[in-house]
Fold these 2 entries.
Entry 1:
Amino acid sequence: MATRTVQTVRAGENNAKQRASTSARNSAVDTVRNPATDLAPATPRPASYLAEFAADVRASLTKQPQRELPSKYLYDELGSALFEAICVLPEYGLTRADARLLQRHARDIVDALDSPVQVAELGSGSGKKTRWILEALARRQRTYYYPIEISPSALAACEKEMGQIELVSVVGYEKTYLDGLRAVATRRDTQDNLLVLFLGSSIGNFDRGAGDEFLREVRKTLRHGDALLLGTDLVKDAATQILAYDDPTGVTAAFDLNMLARINRELGGNFVLSQFRHQARWNDAERRIEMHLVARSLQEILIPQANLRITLEPGESIWTESSHKYVTSEIDDMARRTGFQCIDQWVDAQWPFAQNLFLAE
Ligand code: AVJ
């Protein structure tokens, strides 16, 4: 059937017409059986990727008084798979609330926008919950869907799933949020409106100031009449929030610890994972959950490919992620400060989470 299209634009590629060839790459014979390198990415990384990873690791791990690692590096192939598992944890209600709101209000959301609408998604992951929006739009027009995702495995899964929907054409961008969005914005037809999806409260990874700055950058790529659907997890009681980021089965701990394992695999690091403990902290002043990896004993860390040697004291932590939480009343202001108007908001009844529809002013 000629109604289905799936394409991929890899980092560093500009040819949007190139067909997805993930399966061909994956089936290439891998002769390396070293457990550390067996997990190397199946799709080629841009040449600059390792140098940038090394520089980021070096800069963040040497920060004082609090050492850090950038949360975007949680999402390699294993990290993305562990995140998918987090999303089905009973304690992590966020993803289900997000999906419920999309399922229930897809029609209201798309009805607020003038046809024709093309859809871009920042950090699509596997894209499962986006189906409701795409189906609602495809009922009235052929719909172009541009998932923007840095994890090749997540992007491939997303393209496969969403490419099945009648009257939906998928062009994946293996790029960072803003690079991807700029590429999509240049490609779209002049008469088309763009709906940008930023779901799952991924905005929460940014400090509040940086979040504003990011939304302003998103706004710059848009035109009047375009829209942004922003998912925001809302403040709830501290115990519920901590359990959501430190579940009893240890999936979130594995997700967090995998960042150290990734540094060992890709940069030759010597982290001993059993000597680190995952911890979730609620920071009330900043209204955010922080994930930390706490050294159980003195650790001499060597990361040759980042040209780094550090000593971690017993009890010293590496801060790996922040998840900011919001109150519904702050969202209007956030929109106004960043060049949008919040025209609608839907809140889940079971798990406090809001879907916010912003129009580009
Ligand atoms: C994908 C960034 C929204 O902060 O809730 C889940 C990531 N980290 N459990 C979040 C995450 C630990 C998630 N975001």
Entry 2:
Amino acid sequence: QMQGAVFDLDGVITDTAKYHFAAWSKLAKENLDIELPASFETELKGVSRIDSLKKILEYGNKLDQFSDDDIQELAAKKNGYYLEAIDGLSKDDILPGITELIAQLKAHNVKMSLASASKNAPAILKKLGLFDEFDAIADPAKVAHGKPAPDIFLAGAAAVDLKPSECVGVEDAVAGVQAIKDAGMVAVAVGDAQELAKADKVVPTTADFSYDLFEQTFEKANA
Ligand code: BG6
Ligand code: MG
């Protein structure tokens, strides 16, 4: 039986992916003279702040033009744009099905932890009124490697005293699903089935999430 659920935040619990991308697009355009194609949104999902910026600079063939200090400064600027955009976030911004899912997991004594790459995750959970629902939040600043490396999901399971093999990981990002699988966890993903084909189960929307879906996916993967 599934003992734990280790969640990504952005794009799974709330739809902040669009705000991240809007903030990066603004930074790229106004500060870097790089026009990001819409297709870049998928590539940046789950990727840490600094790694995202490096990908953008690489895309614009400008990575070698910026020092580490420049990169820190640009990343901070992007975060400023992002924080402005999410200022009004509230419980109305919890994605469909998530509140019900949390209640079901609790009713079945499934431990819940967060494995977000975002340093803004605790603040966002508070805005959504979900901070107290989680048993633990893994700190992305304390792991050596960001997604697609498994570190943050391993930390998420350890934070609730579980083995990865006892947990289901929940993601919307290609990098995140890779991280879950390399952590040795069962992966449930939301989004495009082709893009996220490495997951054990992909559903089109978070409204499709339920304890039963997670548990059945877990049992099937372990059969
Ligand atoms: C992930 C997002 O959850 O967090 C990425 O999907 C983002 O887009 C990453 O870059 C880091 O977030 P933050 O809030 O620390 O800049
Ligand atoms: Mg995500």
